[in-house]
Amino acid sequence: MTVRILACSGSLDGGGSERQLVQFVRQLHGRPYDVQVYLQYRRGIHLASLPSDVRVHDYWSSHGPRWTYPGRIRRLQIDHLADVLATEKIDVVYDRTYHMTLVTAPACQRIGCPRISVITSPPSRDLGARRERFRSWKRRLLARYYAAPGAWTIAVSQQVADDAANYYGLDRQRLLVLPNAVDARAIADQAAQGAMEDSSPHAWGDFWLVVGRMTPEKGQADAVRAFAQYNQRHSPYRPWSLVLMGDGPQRPYLERLVRDLGIAHRVHFLGVQSNPFPWIQAARGLVVPSHYEGLPNVVLEALALGTPVLATRCSPDVEALLAQDRGHLVDVGAIEDMAAALARLQSSPKPAAEQRLARQRYVQQRFGIDAWTETMRNLVLQASEARSSAPAWRREES
Description:
7-stranded parallel beta sheet, 2 domains, alpha/beta, 44% helix, 15% strand, disordered C terminus, Rossmann fold
């Protein structure tokens, strides 16, 4: 019996949640699973990473701009998604952001389709600390959606699960903790390919790398300021660079900041890369200056490649990942400390082979793709077999 799954996202732009959604599709697609993808916007660098036989639905290609009022577009998106669920006879819906859950949950309730939703960051920071319209209303809706019958809610770490239970008033026992996974072999293969979308990083000499969507909470401005201090004090005549990979609303501000600090010749903006792994592997170190995080994919990926990581204490999960000499930590917003840490790492020898292997083994043992895939397959089957909330066509088939 085929299990039809619809994996939902706003787009497939270059973010960690988008990469994890593509990984979900690639790992589960194939008998007995028929995985399809639903996007609000049919765009993104990761579209090309989907298997060629995966069907992609989207909202905006068939719904042009129109006169609207608050809530109307969301209602239209719910109607459209519900139609897709019914037409394609979907058994289980999977989503990874609270923005998408606000659409998938009411559509699934209307059709009677089980849903698996993933909470990827502490909601008290991700939603609670943002200047977002209708925040209190969204919080009430999400609390109801995550606790709804026929809903399975995953948190990517214990920290995120505890925060979600407290912020939304959820029963902690309803939250399944399933950390993000990395396919270490696939990452190594992609890193070895060395396919660069711009110039080779080796032409820039040694460089530090920051990867992430350019938004205030990701802290790229702190990394730029720390690099400016480090560059002024320790390496004004050495070819060290800072590479910023990603895009987002803060990019114009960051470009101005780099010019104002006089380091435009040392800071490179790469934009989003479909294959970031050659850059992560070639970097002298990965810098994670975030103000808060859940379980960041890029840290797992850097460890899987044996690349040193310098991160802020942006979450207990990051601190645990980098414990036992697997990485280096500074306080959030501590620019002076970050600059000093860059100087120490720059002057220290590159990691020995034993250190790199220890990091790689840690990731493979704790965050391996095989165990994650098996757990996810079992969860999808459990959701699809929930007869009381299953779609009518599934009950008729049985």
